[in-house]
């Protein structure tokens, strides 16, 4: 599933060409609540989690939608102590309502019951 796919689900198009079956969901552009009743082996959230108005509700839903062993792939820019917050570009987007740190991601892993967390510079992977 591509959760929060927006108007141009580029990754989904590529994965479909590779033979994957991908459902799209976005509350504004692909509002298909029936796809939220299925279970998934993987969910993508590409530049989405910083837009969550209610991160607790969204991560609870994402965890519920995953099969055991399923993976949640997220892409966002993390705030790090070495960043100068005043000049950090990511906070200046008015649609970014929640910012994350590595500590926040570790808390999400524990609080929502993900079994693993992998944090790479450009990819965050939660495993159920």
Walk me through this protein's architecture.
By secondary structure, the protein is α/β, with parallel strands linked by helices. It is built from three helices and six strands, in the order βαββαβαββ. The chain has a four-stranded mixed beta sheet with strand order 3-4-6-5. Strands 1-2 form a two-stranded parallel sheet. The longest helix has 11 residues, at 55-65.
What's this entry about, in short?
This protein has helices at residues 10-17, 55-65, 102-112; strands at 2-3, 24-25, 40-46, 66-75, 116-120, 123-127. The chain has 128 residues and is an alpha/beta fold.
Question: Low-confidence spans: pLDDT under 50, at least 5 residues?
Answer: none
The largest pleated sheet is described as:
4 strands, mixed
CA distance, first residue to last residue: 15 Å
Radius of gyration, taken over Cα atoms and rounded to an integer in Å: 15 Å
Sum up the overall morphology in one term. Answer: globular
Beta-strand percent range: 15-25%
* Strand arrangement, major sheet: 3-4-6-5
Number of helices, counting only DSSP H or I runs of 4 residues or more: 3
What is the average per-residue confidence, as pLDDT, rounded to a whole number?
94
Order of helices and strands: EHEEHEHEE
Structural class: alpha/beta
Helix content: 10-25%
Task: Give the strand tally.
Answer: 6
């Amino acid at each position: 599933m591509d959760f929060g796919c927006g108007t141009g689900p580029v990754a989904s198009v590529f994965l479909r060409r590779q033979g994957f079956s991908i459902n799209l969901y976005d509350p504004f552009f692909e509002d298909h609540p029936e796809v939220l009743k299925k279970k998934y082996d993987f969910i993508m959230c590409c530049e989405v989690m910083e837009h969550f108005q209610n991160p607790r509700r969204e991560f609870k839903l994402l965890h519920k939608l995953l099969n055991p062993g399923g993976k949640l792939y997220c892409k966002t820019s993390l705030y790090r102590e070495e960043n100068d917050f005043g000049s950090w570009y990511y906070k200046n987007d008015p649609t970014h309502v929640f910012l994350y740190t590595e500590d926040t991601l570790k808390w999400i892993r524990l609080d929502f019951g993900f079994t693993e967390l992998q944090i790479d510079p450009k990819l965050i992977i939660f495993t159920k």
